[in-house]
Amino acid sequence: MAWTRRYDDPEPQRVNKWLAQSGVCSRREAEALIAKGLVFIDGQRVDDAGRKIEPGQTLVLNDSAQTLLETSLSVVIHKPVGVVSGQPEPKQVPAVRLLTKDALWGESPAIPGFENKLAPVGRLDMDSRGLLILSEDGVLAKAIIGPESELDKEYLVKVTGKITDAKLGMLRHGISLDGRKLRPAKVTLVGDQQLRFVLKEGRNRQIRRMAEAVGLHVVDLYRVRIGPLQLGELPEGRWRPLTPEERESLIKASRP
Q1: Active site includes 125?
Q2: What is the pLDDT of residues 91-135, one digit of tens each?
Q3: Whole-angstrom distance, CA of residue 31 vs CA of residue 65
Q4: pLDDT band at 71 (very low <50, low <70, confident <90, very high)
Q5: CATH number, domain with residue 179
Q6: Helix, coil or strand: residue 248
Q7: Looking at 125, 137, 152, 192, which residue is catalytic?
Q8: Predicted TM-score of the model (pTM)
Q9: In this structure, are 60 and 78 located in the same domain?
Q10: Is residue 189 part of a domain?
Q11: Which residues of 101-111 are buried (b: 16+ CB within 10 A; e: fewer)?
Q12: C-alpha dist (Å) from residue 229 to 20, 56, 72, 96, 152
């Protein structure tokens, strides 16, 4: 079914910017779809990449546009500590550099190259490890990190400091960061100085900052699950393609 949405913001906005903000695709992808004649506003084809959509108008991506977006490349990586998820600073190693033939786990129809614009969908900071998705699929990105997503993420976290029931209670529903109260979290003690966090949001260095707020210090942070997608037996430093079935299950699970 073609993607259809009414634009209800008070001010006109460029189509490519709105699609990117909505998590449908990147601006570059939106411009490519417009160039192919696959974007329509109120039934009229959009031919200008700078076209703005007006309040009350309805934008439609036809079935061919949906097919192009749904066949975009997505990969699963077991990110090691010391590797950055996105754009690296000098001397840092980005996760995309792990996407080599030698590091492939299993089979893939293609090895990502410079033509693929893979971006992290839910970052892991450089000092954290575990499940990381890189994708050029805007629909998938919206499903995982969009403002309406209901996907949770699971982490195993090793800490130092005394763990008490009071601290666990605060971690579950009593922490504010940057002046905003966090959504309730599931936090349980699962081993010697090890906590399991299950979150439905992903603020910058959130778990580390939550721990610091109650007098704990994170020494190891390991993401094991995003929604229905498990890290499983994927070895550290290796990658594999995301399957169509996994993509569909992530999108389905993200809906309220």
Answers
A1: yes
A2: 999 999 999 999 999 998 888 887 777 889 999 999 999 999 999
A3: 12
A4: low
A5: 3.30.70.1560
A6: helix
A7: 125
A8: 0.77
A9: no
A10: yes
A11: eebbbeeeeee
A12: 24, 37, 18, 20, 10
